[in-house]
Amino acid sequence: MTPARERLADRRLGSRVRERLAPRDPLHPVAWARAELRGWARRHRWFLVVFGLGTLLRVVTTLGYRPALWFPDSYTYVVTAMRPRPDLVRPAGYSMFLRLLEAFHSFALVVTVQHVLGLLVGVMLYVTVLRRGGPPWAGALACVPVLLDAYQIELEHLLVSDTLFTFLVVGAVCLAMRRPLTPRSAAALGLVLAAATLTRTVGLPLIAVFALLLLAYGVRGASADARPGRAVARLTVPFLVAALLPVAGYAGWFYATYQRVGLVGSNGVFLYARTMAFADCSVMKPPPDLAVLCDSRPPASRPASQEYIWNAESPLVRLPGITFTKETDTLAGRFASLAIRSQPLDYLRGMLTELGRSFTLDRPVYPDPETYGYYEFPETVPPPPGRHPALVGKEFAQRYERGPVTVRITEPFAGVMRAYQDVARLPGTALLVILLVPSAAWAVRARWRPGAVRTRRPPAHRFRSNWADSNWGVAYVTAWALLLVPPATAQFDYRYALPAVPLACLAAALSVRASRPDMTG
Q1: What pLDDT score was predicted for residue 39?
Q2: How large is the angle between the packed helices 204-225 and 162-178, nearest 10 degrees?
Q3: Quick check: pTM over 0.70?
């Protein structure tokens, strides 16, 4: 070959090489970015479809119902935001969230932020499944209920604390799963759970749940490095300090305001209402000061538990003073304690009955038509709530908005969401099936795991990876805790069950994850 032909061949070869490497060539950043974006979209196409539909549905909701949908509790949150002080019934975390956005004077912005938080919950679920070695299809399926369930979307459009609480709890679970925990990440986990607790008090038991999980992790690590005290303390101490200091600070603020110990002043009242579903004073034989709280009607003829808190005919509400005074709450707590001690099986039966409402195939009206109606997209402008705190709080809501707060319904957007809500929801029975998937997957894996005799102790990193591999249990236990606490302390409510759904889906997706090890944590 002549020198000229050699040079021509080299040029042709170099041209082919450059064409092949063009997407990665720094001289072609646009082409490289497009190729990367196409590859990324192809890998995550199913999640992007679900995420896109969820975003579209939320846009339609914000166009159909302006500025936001109201719940009786909404006004109390707004009052606390505009006049910061601890509330006797609810912690002030969600009110401080409203306070952060108060400068914009727009409840429409508030619910828009809540819709964004709902979308971010889906993102966290998907990313966590992939980080833990799960297949993309499992991650996409785990996101479907939280992103596409009409009742989840409606809850995000309500001015209530549940969306913020769900975001914080899911964030805490995903943080615990992201990688083997360090003292810094354990402290961050504690702060997130403290924020969740100050948003809804049901988060307080979760601090104990996560502390036990961290303790178990520390003990397993200690068996590898033979330093049990140090291994346990390096995670549990920063976690408990970060979790309990904000809670203690809020409790101090509450005590300075009301001279009462606690985060709220209604624990006894709500537990009293819970026990009125079965409490029989002929069995309890209460002393005279407690007998005034008895209801002579048989349990089958009594109203829903919450009526004993808000209805003017309730024996508790008829007592002098407001329902949540220290004396009234203490009296109600004593009555509830006596009822549980006297009728433990009735209490357990009632709790399981309330829990069972989370798993019904249909969606029966409960606890009453008024409360049930708040979870449906309305066809006409809903009337203002009838509770006294809501009537008082309307003035503060108008000050927050700097204008009227009447709901404006715009068609056809509102009609689209009403029609969508008729068909797009997660049945309670499906939730039960999702909760059974991790246990079934674990049983199948244990049954078919090939037998082997372990001849030596695994190194320390294996204990850390075992913690990561079993992380579906964190989501699983947290989901059950969120489902169990409300029926045990108050009563079932549809909105109380919704925060458990994404965690149940996450646990199910992780339990069927791919067998390959996690390469990202």
Answers
A1: 76
A2: 0
A3: yes
